[in-house]
Design brief:
With 137 residues, this protein is mostly beta strands. It contains 1 helix and 13 strands. The radius of gyration is 14 Å and the shape is globular.
């Protein structure tokens, strides 16, 4: 999954001024305290801070769902240059977006002080994230 952002903000990530509650879809891990990433072989452990560096992909645009696809088409129609944040911890601001994805819904936190990008359709990608708990589907 990639998060699409306008190219003009690529070098200006936001800094979380407080913990941000976000949502992800994944797969059950070996216990209730673990979640496996939906698209990559990454294991989230409950209450552990995970860290990564951002990478950007100007060519491969993969929309996560129809909400992001409409956002992408809107930017394209306006002539806005875009880039996709490829590597980073991808999440959603609103839990309803999880219904558009297969997998186990879960609650995460982007901790205060993390760098993150947020596009206008509610997709976020951050350099740090913490798995808190699975949600009932």
């Amino acid at each position: 999954m990639c998060t699409i952002i306008p190219k003009r903000v690529q070098n200006r990530p936001k800094t979380a001024k407080k913990d941000i509650t976000v949502y992800k879809s994944g797969r059950s891990g070996i216990s209730i305290d673990n979640m496996l990433a939906q698209y990559q072989a990454f294991n989230y452990e409950r209450d552990k801070v995970n860290y990564t560096e951002f990478t950007f992909d100007p060519i491969q645009i993969i929309c996560s769902d129809e909400v992001e696809h409409k956002y992408y088409l809107g930017l394209e129609n306006k002539g806005v240059k875009i880039v996709a944040v490829g590597q980073g911890f991808h999440s959603f601001k609103e839990s309803y977006r999880l219904k558009l994805h297969k997998g186990c819904p879960a609650l995460f936190i982007i901790p205060k002080g993390s760098l993150y990008y947020e596009n206008e359709c509610g997709n976020l990608v951050s350099n740090r994230i913490i798995f808190k708990k699975f949600l009932k589907s």
